[in-house]
Amino acid sequence: MVSASSPYNPTRYCRAARLLHWLTVLLVFTTIPAGLVMVQEGLPRALQDGLFLYHKNIGPIILLLVVLRLAVRLISPPPPLPESLPALQAMIARTVHWLLYLLLVALVISGTLRVQAGGFPMEVWDPLFGGMFGKDEALAKSASGLHDLLKSVLIFVIAAHVGAAALHGLVKRDGVFSRMWPPT
To answer: Where in the cell is it found (predicted)?
Structure first.
């Protein structure tokens, strides 16, 4: 039996999962615009360089957060969805969550591959895993194309996820949104 003063709540994600989720959201929601803007023509070089530096060096942090989130998920499984949620919606919710994890991992890998195969540095990360891939323009071009495709899919999946969260939190008020909110 869980006491009223216990931090455990079977209807909410654990605190670590919530903190990691919202930190990931913050980084992804700053990395996507940086990535979209940094490739625009006519930007001042200093701004473009800063955006590239931020974008390519935040990716591995996002990967680390995803790995930590998956570890936390193993240790502390997510709370069950409300029984009022139709089975199809529950299946879609689970699929979207796993797709988000997969897309974030694939984006970091394709981005890192694009940078290294393109012969560019990952300033913060080069001491740890620089030189994993040698310069290879064809590989860099393929990785860039994959990264661009995955980015578009991620934006769509995030929009669906945010839309569903808003629906449950603002309209249905069925407890789905409060499983992850507040962050602490």
So the answer is: Cell membrane
